[in-house]
Design a protein that fits this description.
1400 residues, mainly beta, six-stranded mixed β-sheet, membrane
Length: 1400
């Protein structure tokens, strides 16, 4: 790197015709102001690594640091990322590993265990400058000191005085530096007599009595310390008897790096005491040399090793009686060093260049090239030549960047980088530093270009008559004629060529001016090429000739196949290959090309090799590769060998298991299910899985391991109502792979109800065959009660003859061995530990025997649902009727069916497939689906399999919040309240909303003011707004996956004064700023006259009808009592006995023109509703003509609502609605704009005399009212405003009050605790209301809390289809009687009134 910096920072000066670039220590690009841009080369970027990571031994549990730092003069500092084992690390949410500001990688807590070694591996940092390129560091090995483990321990021994003894203590090789000895529990001081060997053993030479004692060895400072057994050493006096020489420890082969030291052990015992010396080859080693020392009586220590120390060392021990010897090989490794580094290069497109790289080292280093951090794969255009040089042919602009030569051997690795800059053709190549070019391209600098930007004169036209005068297998000779318009004398030419189908174009220039032919070498035989010629004069390059397409000839004089191709996997990522020379070489073999294919991908790659063996690295783990070799001679590539297929060795998994799902079984157990890691990340056969889990936020984890291929595990013995986090990792024979992300789930506070038996199954279906009946069913609707299984009873005429019990997940069963043409009664009961529930019955007659009935097939087994995304679940299964290989060879097919229980009436969907899996798409997000599978083969079918469940993932909301409304706050004109409903497609739990508001509806989104709302609130106050200003509002919903779309802009104008702030209905939020309805004074007067005439006619008709009704009333007194109780708003279940109620009498009040009910019911406060009549006939929009023309049906609907309200806990008090009244104000009102449905969380101010006095033009709103809940999407919304018995009327109002019936008083609003069900979508209005004062209440659904009621006045509700259940209730509520006839008369009156009021 230092050399690189010196070279790069050398002053580079080059001059073209006009402009000079000075590259000094400041790296500034100094150009004269008049110099055209693009006329000079921009300088190389000073970008290199100042610090690179080194091999590190880490301690388990401690911190570790891998250093890395980059230097650059770029405006933005280099971004540093790290690779582990060749793959980029994702450290975004990693709490344990993070990158420091200088780029170093810090491990705060190194993790290491027997089966989980996530931190151990090879690391490399990559520095990147955007728009410039990337450079990679050398690789560094992070090793973690393992758990102390003694291979051998000291044992009791004895030693003769003056003799030698060895106390064994063999530990893991990486822990030897942490080993020390104690004697009698005191640290033992080593000396030249007491020596610790590389294995950890202790040598005691020339023993004395003081050496007797108790010895033990200890391993310390590795996270945990461990001591060996203690052993007693006894000293014995020397008897003087001869003892045979014995090698207690002898040297073993060892490899060391230059500069280090080595201890070659040699310990000999015997008497007389032996003399020990060492031989290096044939040379006797002498301690006087300085680097050699004898320790422990005979072991050899060599310091500061050099490459010359490599060789065989022999230990020779001899005494007067005998001699003994032992020898070992010492290998000295030399780390790679650069003899020649790659240099920076300037080049033009289409040129060929060579990056040179020469390295030395022992063993011989392997070299690989990297471009911008990615490995360069040899190809036809990227070639390794002259052992380690990189040749790039036919440069294109994308070849720019940093190229690095990485050299590696067993002793270490190094890297050096160089930058390639591709200049525009109008920029001359700088003369310093000279680019490294191939011999064929030394003259590729375009003559005469001079680097001048902008034409100095005309350039040549295209050369003429370009032809291939000579075509061979490997070369083509081109000739041409001078251009018609040369514009100069001495022209030079450039020939651009490319292989057909390849975008890379190469260039060859003529060798001297005026020459009009060139020979293109090194082409491929039998290949098509495209050629074009460009002429150059002193002004620059001219026009290009038309493309000429020529094919080279085929070649036959090529080598035969290389015999004996062998491939052996050395490591999980490398392969050693060897082969013999072809028997028919047809001349000298120049090179070999090795082709290899990843069988899992299918793409073939190749590499050029000079010898007959090669080690291929960087392969995928546990992956099958096929290899073939092609020999090349001077004629080209020969015949390929047959493919050899070998699998690389396995390794620990590199990817976690997929689709981990947690299913809470009960308050004390959780079921885990998962899928294996993807094939590319398994790196071998999965032998088991490790499950880790922890309680809450605790760091302590519990581990559980399961073997084999089991993909589920029940974890029990957990605590109630407690949050647990789980993760799973896969294991191979090599160890444990990475774990999944932590997934959290909470056990139930209490288990499902098992204090009572389950409810009745919700449905039972039977399909009779000849000798069997297929039974299918659905679970009980109430799923809060535990179901342990189902009991099926059946028999001829009675269901009690036979009983079968099946699992709670099963939904289908085939009853076998039945008699044909027999009537069977079948019963189905759900059961739990308390007992069996209510049965559901069905009967079936088996088919007659005459029809041959195929025996049903076995249903598929092991059905699993793997959730892949928010809308996709993959269903897999096995077929027990197939062979073990599960290969389908016949024409069978499978039917997959799926459904969700929300809503309950969802249709079952099915799909057929011929494979053992099916991808179910287009599902709803965040929804639980149930899947089952059956198999069909010809006329034979199976029953449905057991079910599998899967809940799709959440995704961002796909619809915006609905029914956005804005209202002023009472007595606070500068505060408004925004209300809305959740989006109909929330796609997950809504975690919040964002309100955007602005005074400019066309402003950019980022200019709107933002108000966040946390949680699932549906109302929000915004304060301190400006008075008399129009604001626009949008709302966006958010869930855990992100933000949904914005709602349409709703606008609202703040009041001018305190007075106008009470007009809640006047300035409501509106969907469009152009919905104003204007009524002229003339139209108003005409309307008044029409209404007076119609009221008069109506009064006369009503008097006649009233008299008629009174005469008929006494004859049907009891029937009317029943009808009145049913037609009142509220079920008789609420009101008590229906006989207590009577129908109301109609009484006509001539002065006020109103129809009053003469209330005879026990209710003290009959409640009325109002609807203002539109001012013009065009404003009258009958939104529900069915109800207008049939008040009898309207009463039935009200009756239905009363029944429903008792059963729905989520229904609010105001659900008990009634038919609206009509109120007709006669005073002239200023026209106002219509509004949307506007639910509000604030009550309207009560109408008082003071408010009338201060705001005389305002129509009083009802101070009492309520929201109306809704339980089903089919049910119509109930619109009502409840008036008090005595209300202060407007001084000039002449209301016409419609017929109404007594209802339950709405003075109190009971609060229901609503379960967390999905909100029911609001029903859209069928047409926009145009009356100035129309305001609708909206159905709120389940809000989960009581809302303050708001009084509103409404038009007729839109007509909505009723469910069959509603119609059933209507039929049960009424019997045909005289009241029906009376209602028919009223229907006719209403039609007459409608015709009068709508007449022109």
């Amino acid at each position: 790197n230092a050399t690189e910096a010196v070279i790069t920072r050398a002053t580079q000066t080059y001059i073209n015709k006009r402009c000079t670039v000075q590259l000094g220590s400041g790296w500034s690009n100094v150009l004269p102001s008049r110099c055209p841009s693009g006329s000079a080369a921009h300088p190389f970027s000073p970008f290199w690594l100042t610090v690179e990571p080194q091999d590190t031994l880490a301690i388990r549990g401690n911190s570790a640091l891998l250093n890395c730092s980059a230097h650059s003069d770029a405006a933005t500092p280099a971004r540093i990322e790290w690779k582990k084992d060749g793959t980029f690390m994702s450290l975004v949410s990693d709490e344990r590993r993070n990158i420091l500001p200088d780029g170093s990688l810090l491990f705060t807590h190194v993790v290491h265990s027997k089966h989980n070694k996530p931190d151990e591996g090879t690391y490399q940092c990559v520095a990147t400058i955007d728009n410039l390129g990337s450079i990679s560091s050398r690789t560094a090995r992070l090793s973690v000191a393992g758990m102390p483990r003694f291979v051998s321990q000291p044992s009791a021994a004895s030693v003769r005085l003056g003799d030698s003894q060895v106390m064994a203590c063999e530990v893991n090789s990486d822990l030897v530096p942490f080993t020390r000895w104690e004697k009698d529990r005191q640290p033992l001081e080593l000396s030249s007599r007491l020596v610790q060997l590389p294995s950890g053993a202790l040598v005691i030479s020339n023993a004395s009595e003081a050496d007797a004692g108790s010895y033990r060895c200890l391993v310390e400072n590795v996270g945990s310390s461990k001591s060996s057994d203690e052993a007693q050493l006894q000293t014995l006096p020397e008897t003087g008897e001869d003892r045979k020489l014995e090698l207690l420890v002898q040297p073993s082969p060892v490899a060391k790096v230059t500069g280090s030291s080595v201890l070659l052990p040699c310990v000999v015992a015997g008497f007389p005491a032996p003399h020990i010396h060492w031989m290096f080859g044939d040379k006797l080693l002498d301690e006087s040399e300085g680097r050699v020392e004898m320790l422990g009586g005979g072991s050899l220590q060599i310091y500061n090793l050099t490459e010359e120390d490599t060789g065989i060392y022999t230990c020779v021990a001899e005494n007067s009686n005998s001699s003994i010897e032992a020898q070992a090989q010492l290998t000295i490794q030399v780390p790679p060093q650069f003899v020649k580094r790659p240099a920076n290069i300037y080049a033009h497109e289409s040129m060929d260049i060579v990056f040179e790289c020469e390295v030395s080292g022992s063993p011989a280093p392997t070299v690989k090239w990297v471009k911008n951090g990615d490995a360069v794969i040899p190809s036809d255009y990227f070639k390794i030549i002259k052992e380690h040089n990189l040749q790039v042919l036919g440069l294109v602009k994308s070849d720019e960047g940093f190229y690095q030569c990485l050299a590696e051997n067993d002793a270490g690795n190094i890297q050096s980088s160089a930058q390639l800059i591709i200049l525009d053709h109008d920029v001359a190549l700088p003369s310093f530093p000279p680019p490294s070019l191939t011999p064929n391209t030394t003259d590729h600098v375009t003559p005469g270009s001079g680097g001048v930007a902008g034409p100095a004169g005309p350039t040549p036209s295209a050369p003429r008559d370009v032809v291939a005068s000579l075509v061979s297998t490997r070369f083509i000779k081109l000739t041409w004629r001078q251009p018609a318009e040369p514009h100069g004398d001495e022209l030079t030419y450039s020939v651009f060529y490319s292989q057909e189908g390849n975008s890379r174009e190469r260039v060859v220039n003529t060798s001297r001016p005026g020459e009009m032919q060139v020979t293109i070498q090194n082409l491929m035989p039998d290949s098509k090429y495209r050629f074009r010629v460009v002429a150059h004069n002193s002004n620059g390059p001219g026009e290009s000739s038309a493309a000429l397409r020529v094919a080279t000839q085929a070649e036959v004089q090529v080598p035969g196949p290389a015999p004996n191709l062998q491939a052996v996997s050395n490591t999980p990522t490398s392969m050693s290959l060897s082969w013999d020379k072809p028997l028919t070489g047809n001349g000298e073999i120049l090179t070999y090309k090795l082709y290899y294919t990843d069988k899992s991908v299918g793409t073939e790659q190749d590499v050029d090799i000079d010898g007959q063996s090669y080690t291929l690295t960087g392969l995928k783990k546990n992956t099958e590769y096929s290899f073939r070799v092609v020999a090349n001679n001077k004629h080209g590539p020969g015949v390929s060998t047959e493919d050899v297929t070998v699998r690389t060795l396995s390794d620990v998994p590199s990817a976690p298991p997929q689709n981990l799902t947690l299913e809470v079984q009960n308050s004390r157990s959780i079921m885990l299910r998962w899928q294996p890691p993807p094939l590319s990340g398994q790196n071998g056969e999965i032998t088991g899985y490790k499950i880790r889990y922890r309680k809450g936020s605790r760091r302590s984890e519990t581990a559980d391991t399961i073997g084999g291929t089991q993909l589920y595990k029940l974890i029990d013995g957990l605590e109630r109502g407690t949050e647990y986090s789980f993760r799973v990792s896969a294991m191979t024979v090599n160890g444990t792979g990475p774990a999944t992300e932590w997934i959290t789930v909470e056990t139930f506070e209490s288990d499902l109800d098992e204090s009572r038996v389950p409810d009745q199954p919700s449905s039972l279906h039977v399909r009779p065959l000849v000798n069997s009946i297929v039974v299918s069913w659905t679970p009980p609707e109430n799923q809060d009660i535990v179901v342990r299984g189902y009991s099926i009873g059946y028999g001829i005429g009675s269901p009690h003859a036979q009983t079968i019990k099946v699992d709670y997940k099963q939904r289908y069963y085939t009853i076998e061995n039945l008699d044909p043409s027999s009537h069977y009664v079948i019963t189905l009961k759900a059961f739990n530990n308390v007992g069996e529930g209510i049965p559901v019955y069905e009967s079936a007659i088996t088919r007659p025997q005459s029809v041959p009935d195929p025996t049903p097939m076995m249903p598929p087994v092991g059905v699993q649902a793997s959730v892949l995304s928010h809308d996709t679940i993959k269903v897999t299964w096995a077929d027990s009727s197939l062979p073990k290989s599960q290969k389908i060879t016949d024409n069978r097919y499978y039917t997959v069916r799926w459904k969700t229980n929300i809503p309950a009436n969802t249709k079952v969907k099915m799909a057929n497939t011929t494979s053992l899996n099916h991808m179910v798409t287009a599902l709803k997000p965040n929804t639980l689906y149930e899947f089952s599978v059956m198999v069909t083969k010809g006329r034979r079918t199976s029953t449905w399999s057991m079910t599998a469940q899967g809940t799709t993932f959440e995704t961002i909301p796909s619809s915006s919040p609905k029914d956005v409304t804005v209202v002023s706050k009472e007595n606070k004109p500068r505060t408004i309240i925004v209300n809305w409903q959740p989006p109909s497609e929330a796609n997950g739990k809504i975690t919040g909303y964002i309100i955007y508001y602005s005074t400019d509806v066309n402003a950019e989104v980022h200019d709107w003011v933002i108000e966040p709302v946390v949680g699932n609130r549906l109302t929000h106050q915004i304060q301190e707004l400006t008075l008399d200003t129009t604001y626009y509002f949008k709302i966006q919903a958010r869930n855990s996956k992100g933000m949904g779309p914005m709602s349409e802009a709703v606008h609202f104008r703040t009041p001018k004064s305190k007075c106008s702030s009470d007009k809640m209905a006047n300035d409501q939020g509106k969907p469009s700023p152009h919905s104003t309805t204007t009524v002229s004074p003339l139209e108003s007067h005409i309307l008044v006259i029409v209404i007076i005439i119609s009221v008069g006619a109506f009064t006369i008709i009503v008097v006649v009808v009233g008299a008629f009704l009174c005469t008929r009333r006494t004859t049907s007194h009891q029937k009317k009592k029943r009808a009145a109780s049913k037609s009142s708003n509220g079920s008789h279940k609420y009101k008590g006995n229906s006989k207590d109620l009577k129908p109301p009498d109609l009484w006509i009040h001539h002065e006020r023109l109103e129809l009053k009910p003469m209330d005879k019911s026990p209710e003290p406060n009959p409640v009325m509703t109002e609807t203002p009549i539109p001012r013009t006939s065009q404003d009258i929009t009958p939104a529900d003509s069915g109800l207008e023309s049939n008040p009898h049906l309207q009463q039935r609907r009200n009756s239905y609502r009363g029944h429903e309200s008792e059963d729905s806990m989520s229904t609010l008090a105001g659900r008990r609605g009634m038919r609206p009244k009509m109120m007709m104000p006669f005073d002239a009102q200023p026209p106002q704009q219509s509004v949307r449905n506007t639910p509000s969380s604030e009550p309207l101010p009560p109408a008082t005399a003071s408010s009338q006095a201060s705001c005389p033009s305002e129509i009083l709103a009802d101070p009492e009212g309520s929201y109306h809940g809704s339980t089903t999407a089919e049910e119509e919304p109930s619109y009502s405003s409840n008036l008090p018995p005595h209300r202060s009327a407007h001084p000039h109002a002449h209301p016409l009050k419609s017929f109404a019936v007594p209802v339950i008083p709405a003075s109190s609003h009971p609060s229901y605790e609503s379960p967390a069900l999905p909100s029911t979508p609001l029903l859209a209005q069928t047409g926009p209301p145009t009356h100035p004062h129309v305001v609708k209440t909206a159905s709120i659904g389940t809000l989960g809390r009581t809302r303050t009621p708001m009084a509103v006045t409404v038009p007729n509700a839109p007509d909505v289809p009723e469910t069959s259940k509603m119609l059933e209730d209507v039929d049960n509520s009424y019997e045909p009687d005289e009241l029906t006839e009376e209602m028919a008369h009223l229907e006719g009156l209403m039609k007459d009134l409608n015709a009068i009021t709508t007449a022109p």
